[in-house]
TrEMBL record:
It comes from Consotaella salsifontis. Residues 11-76 form the Helicase HerA central domain. Pfam families: DUF87. It comes from the Bacteria. InterPro entries: ATPase_Atu1862_pred, HerA-like, HerA_central, P-loop_NTPase. This is Helicase HerA central domain-containing protein. SUPFAM superfamilies: P-loop containing nucleoside triphosphate hydrolases.
Length: 507
């Protein structure tokens, strides 16, 4: 099932949609000069997906802090130590809270250091916390500059390394990078080259127009069109958008930033003499205007408590009373699992990715509460992969389920699959089937799983006199039917014997 968000309309007036699931598997690059509507596009995309996926927004100007009131994003003021930011980022991934990292008012080198510490904290979490997350970086050329500027070389390398990790290696950790920049020439090529989706807005310099045309696969003569784009108009291309470059117009937004497009205002109608008095009188006693006062940032312990309390995007929607009975809800959950596991690639996706897909299905069916709990999902997934229902009445199966919990989480479904085959007297699953249930393409992984379970006293693996594999579930008497271990290897051995016999006859 595809989950799409609407960015606006295309040239024919049809909705211009972005496939959110495809975006999570790829990355997005947004380019546009100042005033082209780049931040407006980024705001539209984040608003449309706020209740569908966890988000982290790197905000150098404080324009996205309004998401806190509308969508429940936790605002993290970045004037903290790197260790605090890394710890906060880890908690954010653990509790799946959307956040805005507010870098407003900080010097350029401090902004880069804070962004690097925060991105590294998102990146360096445990494998069990690799939940899908959109990571949007506004003004990305500040954090991944193509050339060194006024900041120190160490700061530049740290920030560029964090941005490169996000775009190059973040996908496997569930991080989908969205970078927006004013000029492609200012953005490091290692960061820009990893994007698979592009939204190109107005630009004027020849070098930027040529580079945008190259990224979109357009002829150099077509690059002139980027100079004629109106504000809010972009050319879209990518697997999450269109297979060919398509001009689109970005739709309206629900929130507003602190800055916007400047508009003309009439000058004050004050006489010249009065203006002179206002400007020059008592100049020594008039205090200089200072920066606008800002609310004091939350202390790190208070912020972590707020994150752990779940005050994120999922906490915005109140829990409504569901009139459906538990049986009806269970049928809906079973149907969701059946639809998910019908996809052949589902066996090879990490559990956090499947969990995010499961939550999307639940939102569409308005399922909340204990049905969407992560712990219950992992157990349901293991049972579903093994072909076993969640409600097991038989005491023997309850004991098997308890014994499976002694294994690593990713192996529990494999053990239950073996137990199901053994209880039915069916043929032992092949190495390919065991590896697929584990999430691997390698048949050798299936053989490793059997040896691992045998070493831990859960199964016994034997071979009969024909070389067929026999698996017994210890403590139950359940036994799988025979399966030949390596017919190809046996055929090769037979061919070698025949060759040796032929050579001996010739001698």
């Amino acid at each position: 099932m595809q989950v799409s968000v609407t960015l606006g309309t295309n040239r024919t007036g049809e909705p211009a949609e972005m496939n959110l699931e495809e975006l999570l598997s790829t990355r997005l690059l947004v380019q546009g000069n100042s005033g082209s509507g780049k931040s407006h596009l980024l705001r539209r995309l984040l608003e449309q997906s706020a209740r569908l996926v966890q988000q982290a927004i790197i905000d150098p100007e404080g324009d996205f802090v309004s998401f806190s009131d509308r969508y429940g994003h936790v605002v993290v003021d970045a004037d903290r130590t790197p260790a605090e930011l890394a710890r906060i980022a880890a908690r954010i991934r653990e509790h799946r809270v959307s956040t805005v990292l507010n870098l407003e008012g900080l010097d350029a080198d401090v902004q880069m250091s804070c962004a690097a510490a925060f991105l590294n904290g998102l990146f360096d979490v445990d494998h069990s916390l690799w939940f899908p997350m959109l990571v949007a970086v506004d003004e990305a050329q500040l954090f991944a500059p193509a050339i060194g500027g006024d900041v120190s070389e160490d700061v530049r390398k740290a920030s560029l390394g964090a941005m490169t990790n996000l775009m190059c290696r973040g996908r496997k950790r569930g991080l989908a990078g969205i970078v927006a920049t004013q000029r492609l020439a200012k953005l490091a090529k290692n960061v820009a080259a990893e994007a698979s989706n592009f939204l190109m807005g107005r630009t004027f310099l020849d070098i930027d127009m040529a580079r945008a045309a190259d990224l979109l696969g357009m002829d150099r003569r077509q690059a002139e069109q980027f100079r004629d784009l109106a504000p809010g108009h972009f050319v879209a291309l990518g697997p999450a958008l269109y297979r060919r470059p398509v001009p689109i117009l970005i739709g309206p937004v629900e929130t507003r930033g602190r800055t916007g497009r400047p508009t003309l205002m009439p000058l004050p109608e004050t006489p010249r003499e009065a203006l002179s008095d206002l400007i020059f009188s008592h100049i020594e006693d008039t205090p200089l205007p200072g920066p606008a006062p800002r609310a004091a940032p939350l202390a790190t312990p208070s912020l972590i408590e707020r994150i752990e309390a779940g005050q994120g995007a999922d906490a915005v929607e109140p829990e409504d009373d569901d009139p459906r009975s538990p049986d009806e809800r269970r049928v809906l959950v079973e149907a969701i699992f059946a639809e998910m596991l019908a996809d052949p690639e589902a066996a090879f996706r990490p559990v956090p990715i499947l969990y995010q897909e499961f939550l999307t299905h639940c939102r569409l069916k308005r399922l909340k509460g204990e049905e969407t709990d992560m712990t219950r999902f992992r157990r349901r997934l293991s049972l579903a992969r093994a072909g076993v229902g969640e409600e097991v009445e038989d005491e023997a199966w309850q004991e098997i389920a308890r014994r499976s919990e002694t294994l690593p989480e990713e192996m529990q479904g494999v053990f239950l699959m073996l137990a199901r085959a053994a209880s039915d007297g069916a043929e032992c699953p092949s190495d390919d089937a065991l590896a697929r249930a584990y999430g691997s393409h390698s048949p050798s992984r299936g053989r490793f799983l059997l040896s691992f379970m045998a070493e831990h006293g859960l199964i016994r693996v034997e071979s009969d006199f024909r070389g067929n594999r026999v698996v017994t579930i210890l403590g139950t008497g359940w036994r799988c039917a025979h399966r030949s271990q390596a017919p190809v290897a046996l055929d090769e051995a037979r061919l070698r014997r025949q060759e040796r016999l032929a050579r001996s006859r010739e001698a």
